[in-house]
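Task 17 of the worksheet. Students: predict the tertiary structure of the chain below and write it out as structure tokens. Keep your answer in the requested format; marks are given for formatting as well as content.
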Amino acid sequence: MRRTLAIVAVLGASLSLAACTSSAEEAAPTASATPLTCAAEGDATAAVQTSGDFGTKPVTVFPSPISVDETERSTVIEGTGAEVVEGDTVLVDYTLYNGTSGAEFSASSYASGGRAAFEVDTEKYLAGLVKAVNCATVGSRVVAVVPPADAFGDAGSTDLGIAATDSIVMVIDVESIIPTTATGEPQAPVDGLPTVALADDGTPTVTIPETDPPADLQLAVLKKGDGQTVADGDSLVVQYQGVVWGTGEVFDQSWGKGTPSSFSTGDVIEGFKEAVVGQTVGSQVLVVIPPDKGYGDTGNTDAGISGTDTLVFVIDILAVS
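Model answer:
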């Protein structure tokens, strides 16, 4: 899995299952080494006027050029949910503007499937983006004005039309804090399928039966969530682990990487898609995937998967973005 650091991908639908680009490297953010505190409002954020209901695209006006020496953040709609803290993964809607020209350069769709998920961690994401949501409460709309040092630094971003001296204006709706593991009700295991034991942090250990793998895809719901039903084409936030039936070896997982993974159901192998479409957010599923619904006859040499390997995935469905 990769992590793109260009802001349009940081705030976009898919953070994984694609190659890094040279523009992402060019636009690598400047991470702050200082502990996170709650960013304060100031003259710059006071000058930003934005209107519209939470969860809908805002109308925003501000004097340009607008600039700051350090990130300012103010709350224009106060939410009543939990407070965002460092290390949380948040789901947001957003509109971003060039502080020099006043032009909008990126926005979410303000609809299910078009929101963005990211971790509140300045080592992984733009420091200004993280400071904008840190200390906000779920249900809040915040305005942030971010200096170059907390955005793309001296490099700027040519792809986004951001010069090295441009500040960024952000209007962000904090939709939710995404849990790190599935929260649904435990379900009875299915005889004949692999068993799963969970560590305190949710990391699974899969035990494979000493039998031949089934010829067809097999699915078991280990925890049943009560959230939104996943539809084909949705963008998801998940935790997952993939194991080869024959060896029991883990070939890929999000656990241990510090943050869940995000991708569209159209960006994964067929068996993985069949496992999640129709399930509910908050669920944990176990799926056994035969080769024809995995990587086919060619396998995946980079992952150590042959063309005859049956795969086992444990998937925690955390959110539809």
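Marker's comment: Residues 185-320 form a domain with the Chitinase A; domain 3 fold (CATH 3.10.50.40). Residues 1-32 have pLDDT under 50 and may be disordered.
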